[in-house]
């Protein structure tokens, strides 16, 4: 059993590796990864390490909660939902940092 959720998340990250951009956006002539493909790829790895990912939306916030079934405190992050332009820039900040 891993000592804490961060050790488990590190192992999950190592197993996932690089996410392939397997879908095409004909309008922008670009590739992207499909969220359903991502979930299909990540869920068995999370299951293997006894982690559950929940992403509820409540009061204009989208939460990402990772629960360790072996115990310990859940890891919680939130994003304030807004108009699509705000979400686009917020997601870029989450991905690339401020």
Total individual domains = 1
How far is the N terminus from the C terminus? Answer: 35 Å
**How many whole angstroms does the radius of gyration measure?**
15 Å
Count of DSSP strands:
6
Task: Summarize, please.
With 98 residues, the protein is of the alpha+beta class.
Walk me through the structure.
With 98 residues, this protein is an alpha+beta fold. It has one domain. It is built from three helices and six strands. Strands 3, 4, 5 and 6 form a four-stranded antiparallel beta sheet that branches. A two-stranded antiparallel ribbon has the order 1-2. It is flat, with a radius of gyration of 15 Å. The model has no long low-confidence stretch (mean pLDDT 78).
List its salient traits:
4-stranded antiparallel β-sheet; alpha+beta; 40% helix; two-stranded antiparallel ribbon; 98 residues
SSE diagram, text form:
Elements: H1 5-16, E1 23-25, E2 30-32, H2 35-48, E3 51-54, E4 57-58, E5 61-68, E6 75-80, H3 84-96
Antiparallel strand pairs: 1-2, 3-5, 4-5, 5-6
């Amino acid at each position: 059993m891993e000592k804490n959720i961060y050790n488990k998340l590190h192992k999950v990250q190592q197993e996932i590796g690089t996410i392939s951009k397997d879908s095409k956006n004909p309008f922008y002539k670009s590739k992207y990864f499909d969220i359903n493909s991502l979930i299909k790829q990540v869920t068995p790895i999370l299951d293997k390490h006894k982690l559950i990912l929940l992403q509820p939306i409540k009061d204009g916030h989208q939460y990402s909660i990772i629960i360790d079934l072996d115990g310990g405190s859940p890891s919680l992050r939130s994003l304030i939902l807004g108009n699509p332009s705000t979400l686009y820039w917020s997601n870029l900040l989450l991905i690339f940092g401020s």
